[in-house]
Amino acid sequence: MRVNVLGITIDSYSMQEAVAEIRKAIEDQLSLRVVTANPEMIYESRKNPRLRELINSADLVTPDGIGVVWAAARLGTPVQERVTGIDLVQSLFPVADQQRWRIFFLGGKPGVALQAARQVALKYPGIVWGESHGYFNEEEEVDLLEKIITFQPDILLVGLGAPRQEYWNAEHPELARVSIGVGGSFDALAGIVDRAPQRIQELKLEWLYRLWKEPWRWKRQTVLPRFVIKVLWQKIIT
Question: What's the family (predicted)?
Answer without folding.
Answer: Belongs to the glycosyltransferase 26 family. TagA/TarA subfamily.
